[in-house]
Design goal:
Layout: E1 2-9, E2 18-23, E3 29-37, E4 42-50, E5 57-62, E6 72-81, E7 87-92, E8 95-101, E9 118-126, E10 135-143, E11 154-155, E12 160-163, E13 166-170, E14 174-175, E15 186-188, E16 197-198, E17 204-205, E18 210-213, E19 216-220, E20 224-225, E21 236-238
Parallel strand pairs: 16-18
Antiparallel strand pairs: 1-6, 2-5, 3-4, 3-6, 7-8, 7-9, 9-10, 11-14, 12-13, 13-15, 17-20, 18-19, 19-21
Length: 239
């Protein structure tokens, strides 16, 4: 941080003098006019401003008796990096992915747990602050899918593959058995962006599992597979 120190002598009759500083400053920095507080033993910011490109920066502030150290006022002018404050909005196309407030110079976002596989182009828009201009930046988050299913590969319980754009989990040993067979070794792993499981015919559900089907939420009463929700006497009931 760049700084300048001054000791300003005050006349005995100066009741409320005005302190004025003028100089050039980098527009990327914030200039602060500080005075020493003899009672509190600390520097106090009276006013601040962002540097002005191509012109002088002027800071003015009234002085009060508490700023006097006898007949002197101790002044410190600093030029430092502008504190980052304000909010950032994150969008994917027209879909709002979140809004976050800067804390400690950082804004943190958590993307949906069920974000679909593939590339997601994102735009971050900063609102700006007293010292910083609004800004916008783009980036891409890529959700990688498991390796594609292969008829010649041997799979074991817990292995994951992608097949026709969907994700499947091996429930037991499998070889040359295509995913999506509701009685086969593969379970389809499908969920909403919020992480709620979609009911699929090949998925195994156990008591207490929550699924969504036809726009409704259901809870499994006991083990089931390939039994669609909706049967009042079936293994899945409306939650």
């Amino acid at each position: 941080m760049v700084s300048q120190r001054y000791d300003v002598k005050l006349g005995a009759t100066a009741e409320t003098p005005i302190l004025r500083w003028e100089g050039t400053a980098d527009p990327r920095r914030v200039v602060a006019l500080r005075v020493w507080d003899p009672a509190g033993q600390k520097w106090v910011v009276l006013t601040s401003s962002r540097g002005q490109a191509g012109q002088s920066t002027v800071l003015t502030a009234p002085l009060t008796p508490v700023h006097r150290d006898g007949g002197t006022v101790h002044v410190l002018v600093t030029a430092g990096t502008a504190p980052v404050s304000g909010t950032v909005e994150l969008r994917e196309g027209t879909t709002m992915r979140g809004s976050a407030t800067f804390s400690g110079g950082t804004a943190t976002f958590t993307l949906p747990v069920g974000l679909a596989g593939g590339a997601h182009p994102l735009t971050a828009s900063y609102s700006g602050s007293e010292h910083l201009d609004p800004a916008q930046a783009t980036g891409t988050v890529t959700v990688k899918l498991p390796p594609a299913w292969s008829a010649t590969e041997v799979y074991h319980r817990g292995d994951r593959v992608s097949f026709q754009g969907r994700i499947f989990l091996a429930y037991w040993y499998a070889e040359n058995q295509k995913p999506a067979d509701p009685s086969g070794p593969w379970q389809e792993l499908a969920m909403t962006e919020q992480g709620v499981t979609f009911w699929t015919a090949s998925r195994i559900f156990n008591s207490g599992d929550v699924v969504t089907y036809g726009g409704k939420i259901f809870r499994a009463r006991w083990y089931s597979r390939n039994q669609a929700p909706g049967d009042p006497n079936g293994p899945v009931e409306t939650d």
